[in-house]
Each structure stands twice: as structure tokens, then as C-alpha cells.
Amino acid sequence: MTELELTGRIPTASNATFLAALGDTEVVYKPIAGEKPLWDFPDGLLAHREVAAYLVSEALEWDIVPRTWIRDGPLGEGMVQLWRDADPEQSAVDLVPADGVPDTGWRLVLEGYDERERPVALIHEDSAALRRMAVFDVLVNNADRKGAHVLEMPDGHRHGVDHGLTFHAEHKLRTVLWGWVGDELDAEELAGIERLRGRLEGDLGASLAPLLTAAELSAFAARCERLASRGVFPAPRGEMPSVPWPLF
User: Fold this and answer.
1) 204 and 56 in contact (C-beta within 8 Å)?
2) Which residues, in sequence order, are bridge partners of residue 8?
3) All structural domains of the chain with their residue ranges
4) Which of 228, 196, 205, 212 is closest to 64 using CA atoms?
């Protein structure tokens, strides 16, 4: 097995997160020993949820989550994920002056005020890649889709990262990607959900079983069925905030 070598630390992460190398391959390494207990996610491990999110991404065939797996490292067993270099010139999610929302190509999420009491708007691009990520977040019940968790690739593809807060059995969806509320899912999105549902009865379900609780797996299957049958992007619901904090 190739040795995992630490090359740096990401200090802004809430849990221990490191840059590392597997030979010539750059990766992100999150040791399980560095996970902080969370009152609202008391079951399981964040690392296991990250791997589960990758397996769902693969089953959808949308390449949302970079390859993710569990392996040993300098600080013990942890999650390892292929590093992806985002394009610093692109912003799929942005905060702009309230009167500066583009007429086309963008979706409005919410309006508010910044620290200087200036009116601002949270917006995201209206793209097929980001729509698929929004569908993915509904399915995995992502409680932490911040703007910085969207990686803008130079070719227009979008990767999503940081999926430790997913798959809760209760509704926890908190995301900045609310711009399509009420819109119908398109044929490709529905086909992806059907692929996922089919594999959940077989190899995917078997792979997820060691990573999630039985209640979480049951709730996941129910979300897949509900989204497929309704065929529209859902609206926020419940008393909890519908967006994460901070937004980025």
C-alpha cells in the first residue's frame, strides 16, 4: 500500500483536515480521530457518511463527489478524497448587491443585508451541473451545502465536497442551492434517480449498510421514492434554518 504523506493542514475546517499525497496524487485526508462529536449527528462517523455520499454520486453517474474511500494514514484510519483544483475565476454561488442580480443565467435564493446593512442577494448559477448537485443534496439530505463546498472546474463541471453531515433519518436539508424550488425535474435527473433506486436494492444497498444505520438507509430510500414520484424540486420545510451558516 502506498504511504500517505501529510503535506499541509486546512485550518478553516471544523474537523481535522489535511492535504496529503499518495505518491504523485494529491488527496484530502480526514482522520476519524479528528472528528468532533455532534449533538445532531450522534450516530456513525462523518468519514463513513463522506464515503456513502461518494457511492451515491457514482450510482447516479453524475460525478459529483470526487473519489472517496477509507484507508489508514499517519493519524489513523480516515477518509481520503482525491483533490480537485477549482478554477478561482469562477463562482457558481455568489453574494451580490440586491440590485445587481443578472437577468439571465442565475437563480435567486434569498435577499438580506450585509454587515454594513447594505441589501444583498444570494444567487447561484442556473446550470445543469448545479441542478444535479441540488438533486443529489435532496437525496442524501445534505445539512451543510455551503457555497465553498461547490468546486468550479475549468470545463464547467461542478464537484461537491464535505459530505460528513448527510443521510440523517430526520429532515436536515440545509443548502444554498434553493433556486429551482417548484421546478420540474428533467428527464436526465429522473433517470439518475431511477438508476439509484435500482442499485439501492442490490450492490449499492449492500455497500451502504456498513456505513449508515438501518433508519438512515430506510429514510434515504424513502427520499428517493418521494422525489421520483413528485418530480419537482422541493421547498424548504420545518422549523430549522434552510440554509447553512456561514453561507460560504
Assistant:
1) yes
2) 19
3) 4-92+127-230
4) 196
